[in-house]
Amino acid sequence: MTETPSLAELERRATDRGPVYGAGAHIVCDNLVRIYKADGIEVVALQGLDLLVDPGELIAIVGASGSGKSTLLNILSGLDVPTAGVARVADVDLLTMKAAQRLTFRREKVGFVWQQTARNLLPYLTAEQNVQLPMRFAGRSKKLRRTRAAELLGVLGIGELADRRPAELSGGQQQRVAIAVAVANEPDVLLADEPTGELDSTTAEQVFDALRRVNAELGTTTVIVTHDPHVSEEVERTVGIRDGRTSSEVRRRHAVDAEGRALRIVEEYAVLDRVGRVQLPRHFIDELEMRDRVRLNLEPDHVAVHRAEEEPDSE
Ligand SMILES: Nc1ncnc2c1ncn2[C@@H]1O[C@H](COP(=O)(O)OP(=O)(O)OP(=O)(O)O)[C@@H](O)[C@H]1O
Questions:
Q1: Mutate which of 32, 36, 37 to test ligand 1's pocket (most atoms within 8 Å of Cβ)?
Q2: Which residue, 254, 244, 191, is CA-closest to 57?
Q3: Would 36 be classed as within a structural domain?
Q4: Residue 310 — very low, low, confident or very high, per pLDDT cuts 50/70/90?
Q5: How remote is the CA of residue 146 from the centroid of ligand 1, in Å?
Q6: How many domains does the chain contain in total?
Q7: Is any ligand 1 atom within 6 A of the Cβ of residue 63?
Q8: β-sheet bridge partners, residue 250
Q9: Is the predicted pLDDT of residue 1 greater than 60, yes or no?
Q10: Residue 90 belongs to a domain
Q11: Does residue 203 lie in a domain region?
Q12: Strand-pair partners of 44
């Protein structure tokens, strides 16, 4: 006969849920849902998206048009509010945040770089004044503002352009100023939506290098949404989004082979979410003509997925 647990034991079990999902991560999305309603029609832009990003990481997010990338960045930047699920950035809960907290969050916890160069900077201010502006809003002293603006423009290789207005800068230089503006208040997280989208490949490379430098030298956790293969293939982790969910992940690392030669190891994974869902790559499904249902077999060290054969008609 099983012994009835004591009240104290039941209380312990109820409160002991093990480590919190995403504890220690800088970005936590757990079963994130965003539904838009337009003209009486509901669009499910995010349908249970899970994502963890560690402090100091630099990741790229890729996905087809309409897969939910901008929706995700808008939520992470505090511009939009999710319909359900968990979204936390630098320990701030984005679902329960009040209006005043949202303002502080947007001013001090996250920095944002948009694709449209003109959207990132005020045209009538110089590069240095643009970088100082968020620090003025945050009440930083004049001395600190000046020192930090000069330091940031220097780190990003545009120190000598501090007195120019955006119209006197190239697209790539404007984006580098935009990065300096975004990190002026030392945010925990830097979010960039297609930051190289409007640039030619050489300039795009300079902007990506600037993002990498900020990540490496200031330690800012960085998330870049991109269609640019140069960006998505250079970072250590690229997360693929499909139909509003994280579906795949590519990890890259450096290693040394037996002869001492440097190797770059690229490993591609499907994402197994917290409730056990996996998205099969579209070309696997098409290649094997899988439809509606599949048969799963548990093997000693893997799970096999088979096309379900048609049931023979019963006589
Ligand atoms: N404000 C809105 N109202 C209604 N539907 C929206 C809204 N914003 C986005 N959507 C829809 O949500 C889905 C995801 O859009 P989202 O902009 O996040 O995709 P995306 O991956 O960023 O696409 P792209 O690469 O083209 O920018 C799309 O079906 C889109 O039409």
A1: 36
A2: 191
A3: no
A4: low
A5: 39
A6: 1
A7: yes
A8: 238, 268
A9: no
A10: no
A11: yes
A12: 35
Owner of token pair 């690392």? 253
- Where residue 138 falls among pLDDT bands split at 50, 70, 90? confident
- Does residue 261 belong to any structural domain of this protein? no
Q: Is the CB of 244 under 6 A from ligand 1?
A: no
User: Ligand 1 centroid to 76 CA: how many Å?
Assistant: 15
- Count of positions (residues) in the chain: 315
Q: 255-300: per-residue pLDDT in tens?
A: 888 888 888 888 888 888 877 888 888 888 999 999 888 999 999 9
Inform me whether the pLDDT recorded for 30 exceeds 60.
Answer: yes
CATH of residue 207's domain is: 3.40.50.300
Closest ligand 1 atom to residue 244 Cα is: 14
Residue ranges making up the domain that contains 231 = 54-81+97-246
- pTM to 2 decimal places: 0.86
Which of 290, 315, 292 has the alpha carbon at shortest distance from 304? 290
Residue-wise pLDDT tens digits, 211-263: 999 999 999 999 999 988 888 888 989 999 999 999 889 998 888 888 888 88
- Residue 190 corresponds to which amino acid? L
Q: Is 108 left (phi over 0), alpha (psi -120 to 50) or beta?
A: alpha
In the block, tokens 């930090």 appear at 148
